[in-house]
Amino acid sequence: MSLEQIPVKKARPNDYTSNEHPVWCPGCGHFFILRALTKALAWLNISKQDIGLVSGIGCSSRLPAYLDVYGFHGIHGRALALASGLKLARPDLTVIAAGGDGDGYSIGGNHFIHACRRNMDITYIVMDNEVYGMTKGQPSPTTDPEWHSKLAPNGTGLSSFNPMGIALASGASFIARGFSGDPNGLTKILTEAIQHQGFSLVEIKSPCVTFRPEQKDWHKSMRLMNVTPFANPMEAAQAIYGSDGFDTGIYYQADSPVYRSEASSKKNGTASEQMDIIEKALLV
Amino acid sequence: MANSLLETDQHRLALSISGSGGTGAVTVGLILLDAVAKAGFYGNMTRAFGPQIRGGESAVMLHFSDQPIETLAEFSELHLALDWVKFDRFEDEIPLTSSSLVIYDNSREKPPGLVKESGATLIGLDLQAIVKTLKGSRLNMVALGVVAQQIGLASHFIEAALQKTLGRKGPEVVTTSMAAVSAGMTLLTDTPLPGLADWHPTQTPRWNISGNEACGLGALRGGLKFAAAYPITPATDIVEYLAKPLAQTGGNLLIAEDELAAMNMVIGASFGGVPSMTSTSGPGLSLMTEAMGLAVAAEIPALVVTVMRGGPSTGIPTKSEQSDLNQALYALHGDAPHLVIAPLNIQESATVSQWSLRLSEALQTLVILVTDQHLGQTRMIMNPVEALDLNLQRSQPSAANEETSYQRYQLTETAISPMSIPGMTALQYTADGLTHSESGLPSSRAEDHAQQLHKRADKLSQFEYGDRWACTIPTAKAKFTIITWGSSFEAVKEAVETLNRQGAAISLIGLRLIMPLRTETLIELTQQQKVLVIEQNDSAQLYHYLLSQKAIPIDSDALAEPGPLLFKPTDLMPRIQTWMEGQL
Description:
Strand order of the largest sheet of chain B: 6-5-4-1-3-2-14-7
CATH class of the largest domain in chain B: Alpha Beta
Strand order of the largest sheet of chain A: 2-1-3-4-6-5-7
Number of domains of chain B: 4
Helix content of chain B: 25-40%
Largest interface: A-B, 49 and 63 residues
CATH topology of chain A: Rossmann fold
Mean pLDDT of chain B: 95
Radius of gyration of chain A: 20 Å
Distance between the termini of chain A: 61 Å
Structural class of chain B: alpha/beta
Shape of chain B: globular
Number of strands of chain A: 7
Order of helices and strands of chain A: HEEHEHHEHEHEHHEH
Oligomer: heterodimer
Largest sheet of chain B: 8 strands, mixed
Low-confidence stretches of chain A: none
CATH class of chain A: Alpha Beta
Radius of gyration of chain B: 26 Å
CATH architecture of chain A: 3-Layer(aba) Sandwich
Helix content of chain A: 25-40%
Largest sheet of chain A: 7 strands, mixed
Distance between the termini of chain B: 33 Å
Low-confidence stretches of chain B: none
Strand content of chain A: 5-15%
């Protein structure tokens, strides 16, 4: 689906924003992600009260307060777990989780793997600037091994984490990379991700102008929306591992089994009739 | 006779069964418990396991009575050994004396030295010989017949219990097993035990339920619609029990990748408007601690059941201790008021867990419900317990008002703010673990911080909890008051009641609502008293907590002992007497 085909509806991007001004630094890539997200929600015309936006801790995790939706700014690394509980309990909601590379791939790494594996209908937005910004500039799992910082004066020497590869291996059914400097492409990716049935990882390269000023040059290297989606994980793996990290677009989209609430399936009798059966089973 | 010290008119019988893995000792216990229940009596069954997952030795201890019974006997009157492999592991749990009768299969090992030294009467039977004559039969079923005969349990009750336990394996299995039981019943026809024959059976309906199941049932009655948990001994039975009923009643269960996830899943579901809980034990509670603080700060209702085991670290996962009270009270960082509640016995586990879930909803806070391995994994035959009729609802805002924007953490008279849930129009807000103002927006201002801290403390301290905060058993002219909690309660109660019958005057308080403490009431009850706090941990955690709150006199004493062996009334009585004598 192209953006031209999406029918124009009543909702406008600004309807989704709150009155709070972001804490982000001037020039931060996250501003554009916030804008792209509100545009995607407006295009999809989702009612504000039917959106659950869950985050962890970090610069990017401040996102929920900047939207006028049901938000949850939780604790570091646990956004996906909280979002999974919300989605299972409330399958009627559009559930979006958001955070940064440290929150999602380091402290939250286990939840990332298992959220991919469950493939619940959740959209996960990772604003990846390859640095811990809120704690002022430490290397994260996606930082280059050579990047020098106070905490790793000679670089970490560790090869960086491949989030899209891990997501594919773990069972996510929608995997894309976006760039905050390409609002149109990003809006399209987010729109598709939210519409996708299953777990969607949207990994977004978002420059940290304060602690990684060299990332301001990313726009020179990024290739905008040059990726073709595959439904076959083998082909997607080749595309993901064959990329230098500057390609954008949807890499993988598959129709995989989605973990859903059992509560909606048809039950015999009312809950109170069921409670009678449950209690009678205890009798000697 | 067992429990002679107790001078009770209640009929009681204490049995034990042991065997290595695969001998079916636990099966014999479960069938006996159910058969005695069908015969019209009460009982309980506790278990002891070796550390192996499968193939390990195991033992069950059974207590039968013509009235509900939760305490443990002084010694085992009849012990059945299906074999003697690693029996020494159970020396503590299965006390044998010269009054004990021990029946064993003499086709295998000889009884170990410690059994002979106990002076118990030993009867070796060639059970294996019977098994060989009955095609498809098993030794444990023959042994079951021997025990049934010894305690005067009619075979049709065994058959009914077998039908229930083994019926799904087909009628042949039941027939074969029953043939073995019948053969066993003819092996030893002398009945030296005063068995069930003289007891008065009841016709009233009774439950066969474990404490963990009761805990799950109470939560279901409280409207539970979501549970998330990571497996951990001895708490896993709670969510295993909940899996089916939750699906039946339109709820959901999520198997979490770890306890960090489980607690956050509960918070997410509850934020979505659904009564939610998790269950765990000490190590898992440690992992949940950060998120529990989030539930407190963001005022999200959440019930956490922790089933204590021996600690610290991995400790003794399969056995009981009351040593995680400090953890439940103090583990959270910051000033994080929450509720800590404990049932006093298995019989009230369902009502206390129902109350706990409803309190979490009404007060929009974290409730830690503290039980332990004994309360959780003991199986009881008991009178059914009615559901409570509680009017404790989550307060919700009325429809949005155009003029004023919704204030999620608005100050109110009760300090409880109406909580909107996703889907409600124009009542959106962002829940936050950051310090926030009434609107819910992050704030680091001193005024907002103090205001919201006080609000969260006040809503818990001002609430009217009613009589359920404790079980108080006052005694006229008592100079002594004993305070206890959790699984120690039943043993202490029986010891106190017996001493009082013998002329002592002791009052008893069993605490259910441990935080916030009903300090003023406790002061009123204990200010003229000599107070003894009894609990099963090494550092006297409840005692020090009560002193810190100035809820008991400064000269109060503690009787604190680590697990995993539970207090028995017969052990406690002389110790309480010695303590009272020391006060004079």
